[in-house]
């Protein structure tokens, strides 16, 4: 079974992915793949420099993620430019990793894809698991984790579809408002319902 793990920014996807990893399920992580496709020497990085200028690089030639983030989370048209460069490369690598795990005999593969709904990738997976969180908790956790102002955190949250829309498209929802242990209990229950573990 291919499980698509999604949610909104700072809703708790990585927290749930870590639990699944500890249960020994293979994870294909879109955020991690997104970092690999912009390493120095990769074509996507060259295209980003062409669109955003040399200033988007750090002195050592790596992508200045903080700077690019501050541009694209405040400007939908720039975000589209970046997505058009990166998403085809990310999708290709994620599918290759998924197929590799399946060929090796994995019965369950988890694909952690923050933008599963925004990028209409529902067909990549068989079951969709959404990690949801209340708005105020999401804002506080995001501000704390990324050391962002309220304005910057809100800009990031509103660059994605509302969680209510994602919940509507889910096969199961984890409400990550309470302790991490409570979240784990919900995960175990859902896996059991799906006949896994
Ligand atoms: C803009 C970048 C450089 C900012 O890097 P930074 O290290 O600050 O954030 P990180 O990569 O850890 O992403 C954190 C979260 O931001 C959200 N996010 C990232 N990119 C986007 C986007 N294009 N649109 C909406 N939300 C996004 C996701 O929820 C993601 O989990 C980076 O997010 C990026 O390269 N984004 C484009 C690729 C992409 O769409 N990634 C999302 C998963 S496919
Ligand atoms: N149940 C919880 N209780 C307290 N803190 C939590 C809980 N779940 C997650 N957090 C914290 O909230 C922040 C966001 O969680 P996490 O990184 O798992 O979200 P995410 O959905 O993967 O985010 P992103 O889309 O940005 O990668 C982290 O700092 C994490 O430690």
UniProtKB/TrEMBL annotation:
Q: Which InterPro entries match?
A: Depp_CoAkinase, P-loop_NTPase
Question: Which cellular component, as a GO term, is one annotated location?
Answer: cytoplasm
- Specify whether Kinase is a keyword of the entry: yes
Catalyzed reactions per annotation: 3'-dephospho-CoA + ATP = ADP + CoA + H(+)
What coarse category fits the chief subcellular location reported for this protein? Answer: cytoplasm
Top EC class, one word: transferase
Q: Name one GO molecular function term.
A: dephospho-CoA kinase activity
At the top level, the lineage of the source is Bacteria
Entry binding sites for ATP: 10-15
Keywords assigned by UniProt? ATP-binding, Coenzyme A biosynthesis, Cytoplasm, Kinase, Nucleotide-binding, Transferase
UniProt-annotated location(s): Cytoplasm
The GO biological-process annotations, alphabetized, read as: coenzyme A biosynthetic process
The Enzyme Commission number assigned here is: 2.7.1.24
| Lipid metabolism listed as a keyword | no
Metabolic or biological pathway, per its Swiss-Prot or TrEMBL entry: Cofactor biosynthesis; coenzyme A biosynthesis; CoA from (R)-pantothenate: step 5/5
Which family is this protein grouped under?
Answer: Belongs to the CoaE family.
Q: State the function annotated in the UniProt record.
A: Catalyzes the phosphorylation of the 3'-hydroxyl group of dephosphocoenzyme A to form coenzyme A.
Q: What is this protein called?
A: Dephospho-CoA kinase
Q: Which organism is it from?
A: Kurthia zopfii
Q: What is the lineage of its organism?
A: Bacteria, Bacillati, Bacillota, Bacilli, Bacillales
Instruction: Identify the coding gene.
Output: coaE
């Amino acid at each position: 079974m291919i499980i698509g793990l999604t949610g909104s920014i700072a809703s708790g996807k990585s927290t749930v992915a870590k639990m699944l990893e500890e249960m020994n399920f293979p994870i294909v992580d879109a955020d991690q793949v997104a970092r690999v496709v912009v390493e120095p020497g990769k074509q996507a990085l060259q295209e980003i420099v062409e669109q955003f200028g040399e200033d988007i690089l750090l002195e050592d030639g790596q992508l200045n993620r903080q700077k690019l983030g501050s541009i694209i989370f405040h400007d939908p048209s720039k975000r589209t430019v970046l997505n058009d460069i990166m998403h085809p490369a990310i999708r290709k690598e994620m599918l290759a990793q998924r197929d590799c795990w399946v060929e090796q005999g994995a019965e369950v593969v988890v694909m952690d894809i923050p933008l599963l709904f925004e990028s209409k990738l529902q067909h990549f997976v068989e079951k969709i698991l959404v990690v949801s969180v209340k708005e105020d908790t999401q804002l506080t956790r995001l501000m704390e984790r990324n050391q962002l102002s309220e304005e910057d955190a809100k800009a990031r949250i509103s660059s994605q579809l509302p969680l209510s829309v994602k919940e509507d498209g889910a096969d199961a929802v984890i409400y990550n408002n309470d302790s991490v242990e409570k979240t784990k209990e919900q995960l175990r229950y859902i896996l059991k319902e799906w006949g896994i573990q």
